[in-house]
Description:
This protein is α/β, with parallel strands linked by helices. The chain has one domain: Alpha/Beta hydrolase fold, catalytic domain (Rossmann fold, 3-Layer(aba) Sandwich), CATH 3.40.50. The chain has ten helices and ten strands. Strands 2-3-6-4-7-8-9-10 form an eight-stranded mixed sheet, sandwiched between helices. β9, α8 and β10 form a beta-alpha-beta unit. α2 packs across α10.
Amino acid sequence: xxxxxxxxxxxxxxxxxxxxxxxxxxxxxxxxxxxxxxxxxxxxxxxxxxxxxxxxxxxxxxxxxxxxxxxxxxxxxxxxxxxxxxxxxxxxxxxxxxxxxxxxxxxxxxxxxxxxxxxxxxxxxxxxxxxxxxxxxxxxxxxxxxxxxxxxxxxxxxxxxxxxxxxxxxxxxxxxxxxxxxxxxxxxxxxxxxxxxxxxxxxxxxxxxxxxxxxxxxxxxxxxxxxxxxxxxxxxxxxxxxxxxxxxxxxxxxxxxxx
Length: 259
């Protein structure tokens, strides 16, 4: 019964897609295809998109639906407008990555991706900016707590899965029954690197107020940017130049790294 309950819970939280519908080449971005081995033997697929004038390298943790191929348009704009190297990968069970998804699995995947970028791509943690969007914000926060990265960017973060369940099912005590936590609010106060939180004020999935709570619980230095008029999935489009300028400003104003 416990195993069955866990599988039902995972289906509620995770919505992976196996089909790779496009690659960065479809938008004119040269990229490298990489495969990563996790500590428990899962094989993950990721892309490294270099930029000739990169200000930094971004390690990207995507949300709970689709796969990396559904982020290509967003990759292109962020790569070009902020001038970043980007490494994005699929969690287990997404895209070409093997295995079955779970909360603990995403944390293993995040640690494996961090180690891979460090050891195989050659980017030290102190030169890495970690970026997490929606569910990826929870994984990114967990990984950022385990390394001395240069900065953390969270877009549309929620406080916890239990709070999200309460928001979706306000009259049912579903949140109390969930084993999955993804508790960003509980962890963010431990963060010791600069933080940028971005959130659309019309987010129709993750309440804007949850993003503000995450921000309020974090230590300084930190900054919050409201993406005016943006819902959950159109932040990078509705935000326009102001959105990219704010990310670029955060990157440019990070403290310099030391040998």
